[in-house]
């Protein structure tokens, strides 16, 4: 221990003695460790950090599905009751769904809130205790619409109610219903979806008094039943706690038995329904989403790990140079009895000091970055999303592990090299041995080649994504989103019944169409390229048998004038008219792809599409619209079905204006609020913003990988500069001899640049091979660009060569200014 303290103290002294070396080395490590720690803090918050519930390892997620295309869907309320009543492997089964409502209070603007409708045992099953008041009671699970009670989230209690203890018992108006606050959730708990902030909880019996905002599907056509009564309407997320001694495997087997009974007892709604069970810790967002999130996290972690590797290579090169300058000191230590192991331990201790300081600086950098990321505004998002990217114990442990690993990564090889001594030349202070004649590839060369290769990998990845973005932006979408605004609100949250909602909808459309600069306004349930997807199962006589499953087709509900507003021309037949909407006619407009798929070589006009089985009235095809992008910019043409918008309290509008949507939106909002000032928009954005969201992952990836690539290239350039400068310093005599024998300064510059070029080309070759192997990982984010796109590789290689040349020119010019007489005299 005493020797370790001595070595650490000596390491500190050496850093103080050479502040330039210390600053560059610590800055390199701080950037590498800081980037890795920052990204790990994001991954920790999004994927790893446990939700504050009791024994989370005993919780499971239950999904049901009637379609192989969507294997992990939500469950109906009757199915939830069947699971709760029949399952013996669970000690408790709870369910919840996302809802939205408008909070109204005296003196304040109406505010849109997002919360959860939950079963009465929700908090008990999770093991969560309210900070104030109580949770829900079993009696509040009976009687639709009869239990207007509410539990506030801790955050909403603090923000909206000032953290007052007398909030329990207070009346709160939400979407036209007066609720009584019965409790306040604990600090730190905001629901079971990471990042999603549930601002309130109400009994599931109140779900139809609020706006539903979750994942749902329906195979139940009973028009007289409510959401809570329909067994085929699936909308609830189900969570359960395993009973003592029970396993996930046992629970899955029991659920299969329960669902086999449901398939037998309720064939109309459950004939093909299957259940899936996941450990609670195995699901963060949704089984179909988690894979993409984990893959993206892995790519980014790999990218910052490359940056850290490059930073470590830089420090290793600096330590190699310092080791060469300390050969006499180390030789003296060896001569008086220090063994090689002792020398290596000393040098590693010095590296540990360096890593500790760099790691601490990296943690400070990560803490600062985390505060910035946590404070980013999310008001524009449709749901309140918030992640706390603070540096907790897990993140600190990661930073410590990274710092320790970097010690071995950048410290071991220089320590072994420096401790391998030829005592006689070393004691004579002969330091020309390494650099006098460059006949072999040194470790320093190998480190620089590695840096350049890894930098090229990041540059190629960024260039591929940037190329994909350019292709995506140049893709013909089939419509022009620039002059279109999209506004959405739900009159159900304002207490409207269906008749009043339809009347207000008509008035709003008339007022918008009368505004100056408005070229058209129409109802539409979904804009092209919006993230929400609605599919209907269709059947066509001659192509589907009586017992065949329907084919899922993307479907949208539209009003009259929609196709003109969207800029999508009708190529055959007619568009949906006002009479179709008002009369609830069963007509449909399909796109060209759908017409070719189901009626090849002939007109589709007059054909029938059955959406509720062959027994129900069909929809007649009255028009064919030109193809346009439906889900993503890079997709192949897909069938798309348009049907008339029916009566609804949910209002979604597309408005075309003669000015850009960004400028028109304030006028459109004001016109709608003039009809009812209590309306709160659930979405009001330019259509171009909706389109931009589809390429957002690629755009973010390109920006991050481009930034990482630039930083990596900067670090690699510093490393290359160090190697070339060190080489020049070691070859001073050689340069002097060349100049004395008639070499011109340009010849010397060319000689140095040739050495730099040799290293750069080696790095480009190795990096190109590595990028070709790893480029396949980015395939899902690329639009119309191959992972081996030559343009991306050429651009990345050109940038690397240019930066390498700039990094080499300074030592090359220094070599050209060598005075031959002074160099020869010095040597």
Give a short overview:
The protein is α+β, with helices and mostly antiparallel strands and 827 residues long. The protein is built from 24 helices and 24 strands.
Written account of the structure:
There is one protein chain. With about 850 residues, the protein is of the alpha+beta class. Residues about 430-440 have low confidence and may be disordered. It contains 24 helices and 24 strands. The strands form four sheets. Strands 16, 17, 18, 19, 20, 21 and 22 form a seven-stranded mixed β-sheet that branches. A six-stranded mixed barrel has the order 2-3-8-5-7-6.
Round the mean pLDDT to the nearest integer and report it.
Answer: 83
Termini separation (Å)? Answer: 43 Å
The main β sheet shows up as: 7 strands, mixed
Strand-pairing-aware structural class: alpha+beta
**What is the alpha-carbon Rg in Å?**
34 Å
Oligomeric state of shown chains: single chain
Number of strands: 24
Low-pLDDT segments: 429-439
Count helical runs: 24
Fraction of residues in helix: 40-55%
- Name the shape in a single word: globular
Question: What percent of residues are in strands?
Answer: 15-25%
């Amino acid at each position: 221990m005493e020797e370790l303290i001595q070595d650490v103290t000596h390491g500190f002294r050496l850093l103080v003695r050479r502040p330039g070396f210390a600053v560059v080395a610590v800055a390199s490590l701080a950037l590498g460790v800081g980037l890795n720690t920052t990204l790990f803090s994001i991954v920790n918050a999004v994927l790893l950090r446990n939700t504050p519930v009791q024994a989370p390892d005993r919780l499971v997620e239950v999904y049901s599905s009637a379609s192989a295309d969507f294997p992990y869907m939500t469950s109906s309320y009757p199915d939830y009751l069947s699971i709760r009543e029949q399952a013996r492997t669970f000690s408790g089964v709870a369910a919840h769904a996302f809802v939205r409502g408008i909070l109204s209070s005296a003196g304040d603007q109406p505010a849109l809130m997002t919360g959860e409708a939950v079963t009465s045992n929700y908090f008990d099953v999770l093991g969560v205790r309210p900070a104030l008041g109580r949770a829900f009671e079993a009696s509040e699970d009976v009687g639709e619409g009869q239990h207007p009670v509410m539990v506030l989230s801790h955050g909403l209690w603090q923000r909206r109610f000032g953290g007052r203890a007398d909030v329990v018992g207070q009346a709160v108006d939400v979407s036209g219903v007066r609720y009584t606050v019965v409790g306040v959730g604990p600090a730190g708990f905001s629901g079971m979806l990471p990042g999603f902030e549930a601002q309130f909880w109400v009994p599931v019996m109140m779900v139809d008094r609020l706006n539903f905002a979750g994942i749902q599907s329906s195979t139940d056509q009973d028009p007289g039943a409510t959401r809570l009564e329909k067994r085929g309407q699936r909308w609830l997320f189900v969570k359960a706690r395993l009973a003592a001694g029970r396993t996930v495997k046992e629970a899955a087997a029991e659920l299969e038995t329960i669902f086999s009974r449901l398939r037998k007892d309720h064939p109309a709604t459950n004939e093909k329904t299957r259940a899936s069970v996941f450990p609670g810790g195995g699901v963060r967002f949704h089984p179909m989403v988690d894979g993409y999130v984990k893959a993206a996290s892995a790519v980014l972690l790999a990218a910052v790990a490359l940056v850290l590797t490059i930073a470590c290579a830089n420090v290793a090169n600096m330590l190699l140079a310092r080791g060469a300058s300390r050969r006499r000191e180390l030789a003296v230590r060896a001569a008086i009895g220090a063994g090689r192991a002792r020398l290596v331990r000393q040098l590693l201790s010095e590296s540990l000091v360096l890593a500790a300081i760099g790691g601490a600086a990296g943690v400070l950098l990560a803490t600062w970055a985390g505060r910035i990321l946590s404070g980013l505004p999310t008001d524009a998002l449709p749901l309140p999303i918030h992640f706390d990217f603070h540096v907790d114990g897990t993140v600190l442990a990661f930073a410590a592990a990274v710092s320790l690993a970097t010690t071995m990564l950048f410290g071991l090889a220089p320590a072994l090299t420096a401790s391998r001594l030829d005592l006689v030349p070393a004691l004579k202070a002969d330091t020309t041995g390494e650099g006098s004649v460059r006949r072999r590839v040194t470790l320093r060369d190998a480190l620089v080649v590695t840096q350049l290769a890894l930098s090229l990998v990041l540059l190629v990845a960024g260039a591929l994504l940037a190329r994909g973005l350019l292709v995506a932006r140049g893709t013909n979408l089939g419509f022009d989103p620039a002059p279109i605004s999209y506004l959405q609100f739900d009159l159900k949250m304002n207490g409207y019944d269906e008749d009043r909602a339809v009347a207000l909808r008509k008035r709003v459309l008339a007022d918008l169409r009368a505004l100056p600069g408005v070229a058209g306004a129409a109802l539409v349930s979904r804009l092209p390229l919006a993230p929400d997807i609605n599919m209907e199962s269709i059947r066509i006589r001659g192509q589907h048998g009586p017992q065949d499953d329907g084919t899922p087709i993307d479907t949208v509900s539209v009003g009259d004038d929609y196709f003109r507003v969207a800029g999508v021309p009708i190529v055959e037949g007619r568009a949906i008219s006002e009479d179709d909407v008002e009369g609830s006619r069963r007509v449909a407009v399909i796109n060209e792809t759908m017409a070719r798929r189901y009626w090849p070589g002939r007109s589709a006009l007059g054909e029938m599409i059955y959406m509720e089985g062959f027994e129900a009235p069909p929809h007649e095809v009255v028009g064919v619209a030109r193809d346009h992008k439906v889900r993503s910019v890079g997709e192949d043409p897909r069938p798309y079905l348009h049907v008339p918008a029916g009566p609804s309290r949910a209002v979604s509008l597309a408005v075309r204006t003669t000015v850009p949507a960004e400028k028109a939106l304030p006028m459109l909002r004001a016109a709608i609020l003039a009809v009812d000032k209590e309306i709160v928009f659930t979405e009001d954005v330019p259509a171009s913003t909706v389109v931009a969201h589809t390429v957002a992952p690629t755009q973010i990836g390109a920006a991050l990988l481009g930034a990482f690539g630039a930083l990596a290239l900067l670090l690699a350039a510093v490393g290359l500069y160090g190697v070339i400068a060190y080489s020049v310093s070691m070859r001073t005599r050689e340069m002097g001899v060349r100049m004395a024998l008639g070499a011109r300064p340009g010849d010397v510059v060319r000689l140095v640049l040739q050495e730099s070029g040799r290293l750069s080309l080696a790095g480009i070759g190795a990096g190109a091979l590595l990028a070709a192997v790893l480029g396949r990982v980015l395939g899902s984010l690329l639009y119309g660009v191959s992972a081996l796109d030559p343009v991306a590789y050429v651009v990345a290689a050109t940038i690397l060569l240019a930066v390498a040349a700039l990094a080499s020119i300074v030592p090359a010019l220094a070599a050209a200014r060598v005075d031959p007489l002074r160099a020869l005299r010095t040597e």
